[in-house]
Amino acid sequence: xxxxxxAVDLGGILLTDPTLGKFWTTIARGNARVEGAMRHAWFTDLxxxxxxxxxxxxxxxxxxxxxADLRPDVVRAAFLSGFSELPAGVAGVRACLARNIxxxxxxxxxxxxxxxxxxxxDWFGELSGYYCSSExxxxxxxxxxxxxxxxxxxxxxxxxxxxxxxxxxxxIGAGIISIRGDSTGRWLAEAFEMWGIxx
Length: 199
What we know:
5 strands; elongated
């Protein structure tokens, strides 16, 4: 019998994503042109290069700070302060841990940031591992990411939870049972049902 294992996305499931919130408006100080230029730089260039491990973090803040006319450390601090817990998702992780179900993080976020979150969120220290795109040199929804994700767990019944349908489809294509989740934590009941565990 295979052992249950939860592989869960970070942004949108467990933590908020500042790039989908007020970060841009705050840093641009209400200047729509600056905000648009920063968003364009992030979403068309910086984000993917950072997540693939092809770009050093300092280059991201340098580029954005030049657009915003702010110091790089100010931009970085504003960005990292924009992550906060999504209570329902965290409760789902805690429920799995309480039943001795292993939980690994499957994220496109930059690996060094995890040390920051380990100090902020106590449940980070209880996770069984981190699978970060910047270290794996491939990012969700690349099939290569999911092939690497499942390699260490041949004896596990992995359920992958992510809020991005493209990531869910790619994981299914790699042979991983997957659930499209959101901030409500409703994915937990579905995962327990798939594992045959009473909620």
